[in-house]
What does this fold into?
Amino acid sequence: MDAEQLRECAHKMVDFIADYYKNIESFPVLSQVQPGYLRELLPDSAPACPESLQAVLDDVQNKILPGVTHWQSPEYFAYFPSNSSVAGFLGEMLSAAINMVGFSWITSPAATELEMIVLDWLAKALKLPDEFLSTGKGGGVIQGTASEAVLVVLLAARDKVLRRVGKDAIGKLVAYSSDQTHSALLKACKIAGIHSENCRVLKTDSSTEYSLSPESLSEAISQDIASGLIPFFLCATVGTTSSTAVDPLPALGKISNRNGLWFHVDAAYAGSACICPEFRHYIDGVEEANSFNMNAHKWFLTNFDCSALWVKDRSALIQSLSTNPEFLQNKASQGNMVVDYKDWQIPLGRRFRSLKLWMVLRLYGLENLQAYIRNHVELARKFEELVKLDPRFEVAAPRNFSLVCFRLLPTHQNNLESANTLNRELLDAVNSTGKLFISHTVLSDKYVLRFAVGAPLTEERHVVAAWTTLQEKASELLRKSQE
Ligand code: PLP
It folds into this structure.
């Protein structure tokens, strides 16, 4: 690494990136390229001789950016947000600069210690119970994604129960969730060797606003126990992916504890909102949980990837995931004086991800972060009002945070299929304008459009413009359907 060369090239790159952000609204939000477009534009093999940075940047501008979907665009309203920010960006930059691989404390003590401190800070901001702090038997760890978070706690829960009942009982273990739980849980069960017929996906409907009913959980557990099976894991969600439903944590937690289940709370998206006192009640009941997860890379201004996981009993994780080969042994680890995060995750290597979260917390401060969340919730509320004012549309699920689920109503009485087709066509029509990007889900067999506010650059004018495009495209489609 030549420091002067870095200075010159990095300045150029920062200029390029700043211009990208400045002009981000000029790109179609959803990339409009066709599959395989890039192979036609790039050579078949790597160059034999070095090329200039300018040549590469020209290719980024002309060949790569057309194939990018602009998640940071203020007109991005799809899935859930994935925030970037100046602070998060600078933290990523610094982490790339230091470029250490912090699997054990000794490989970079600051990386482990900063992660512990920053996750304690965030746990306090969320008012998590003290048992989740690193000062006791628990602690926080940064995983890459919520999928990794649920996998590692599922493995810990599996091994904890198997230590008690014997390894041969793995075929009897049962995991519980609702039909709104993220598919990451079923993937984790597959990896952990939990039989697919022992994954209880409990039905929800509009009568409970798509949240998991404690009665149906209790019933399922009783039936499984009566059949000689061993209930061992419950994943509840605060802010489901489809509609931001909130499972009733206090009741579910009590049932879990009574039956000896590991209780995991997935607040991947909505956890960020719970730093605001007025939204904190959504995670009431987290005292009953064994583990809690939120993605700082979704709605907390921290660049991807940064998924915060807290556990009350770190030894359960470590017993499942620890390895201790000779070549990694060192005094601090052998003396049990330190945390070695390699034992809290699947891979060995890990990045210095706490830097960006630390920078976000310091450069914004909790008050600004709260204001940031509130602004998005308010923008979503305004969008919801606009939907309600147009009798051709309906709001399809309660809005808890900054996601509005809505749909065009059927033009013929009760014709579900034609309404679904109409909404599918509306989604395609608005997304192909390049002026906004929204996604969809299905709730109670209805095809529903999702408008998730949460991109850092989104302002009221973007929300209003998106609604105008939606209305225009709806009018066109309705006119055509009547011809
Ligand atoms: N859980 C919930 C509630 C989510 O909304 C998502 C993704 O949107 C996930 C889990 C999976 O997230 P990740 O991509 O971090 O694995």
Observations:
- The chain is about 40% helix and 10% strand.
- The mean pLDDT is 97.
- The longest helix spans residues 354-389.
- The domain at 1-30+69-84+367-483 is CATH 3.90.1150.170 (Aspartate Aminotransferase, domain 1).
